[in-house]
Amino acid sequence: MGRKRLTAVDLFAGAGGAALGLKAAGFEILAALEIDPDAAATYERNIGVTPLVADIRLVDPDAWRDRLGLAPGELDLMVGCPPCQGFTRLRGPKGASDPRNELVDVFARFVRSFLPKMVAFENVPGLIKSTHGRAYYERLIAALEAAGYEVTERVLDAADFGTPQHRPRLVVVSAHGRKPPLPEPTHGAPDDPEVLAGRRKPWRTVRDAISHFPPLAAGESCPNVPNHSASSIGPRVLRFIEMVPRNGGSRREVPREFWLPCHLTHDGHKDVFGRLAWDEPSSVVVTSGCINPSKGRFVHPEQDRALTPREAAALQGFPDHFAFSGGRLSVASQIGNAFPPPLAEAVFRAAAAFLRRGARDDARSSTRQQGGAAQIA
User: Fold this and answer.
1) Host domain of residue 102
2) Is the pLDDT of residue 367 over 60?
3) pTM value?
């Protein structure tokens, strides 16, 4: 039983961030579902599984489960990472009207149909911190508990699991009749006692992730490295970026007479046009705007340009060989929306160990019951 191949279904599959974690943890991905054709093409190209390309709201979960040849309760793990845009801090109360919010309820409907042995769900912390998000979260938990699941939830920082980026994520795992674990951090700050004692590794840094990629100027591409292409920048913005101090500098450190007009009348968004710092994890969350310096701290630590999609993917924890399909904006969206693979791997390794331990316990219990029955006979 300990060697049995564990199975998973990947909903809201995206480009394959969760899938990389599933494969590394030893799961066989039986099926995936994704609405975006470009992301599905990336998934198939790198994961080797062809997702069903469809709006999940229009998919009958019972009919799909039947097509997969699964009986209720047979699947080991169902994974769901629905769109988070409606719950992000940047959207605030405006996110309450995002129609994608209802996908949390749709995920619960698929859980009720498949009744997997274990469920894993990932989203932004705003799901439990915003008023409208909390309502969706409480409905999800109520649905899981009504179906017999016990729930563990925690906000995890992807940097604590080997991702070179501070990225807090709400992770919820649940299982029938037993409370499943979430992983303990494997990485930490260089001065953390656990790191100094050798029990954890130091955080991976921006330098660890991107310093080995060939240098580029704005508008240049490297044909030998997948998705390593820098956006073109107009002369005025380029001159401004050149004045931002290297290695973590902010736009606010540029003399005010050179500020762009929009920044003279607006005191917010202080990270835009800022540079990443080499020797720490990315301080800014990689979003779908990760290749646009006007969307956040997405300027290279030394080179006068925005991050390339390849570099942004590395900050998410994707391996260098992972090639994304689609146009530049589509690729940036796939990267920004991904479940960081190192964090996903840690979550799913803990899930795999839990499921295998449960299988062994069930096997021992069955053996004891059979032995007792034989003695009575």
Assistant:
1) 6-190+339-367
2) no
3) 0.90
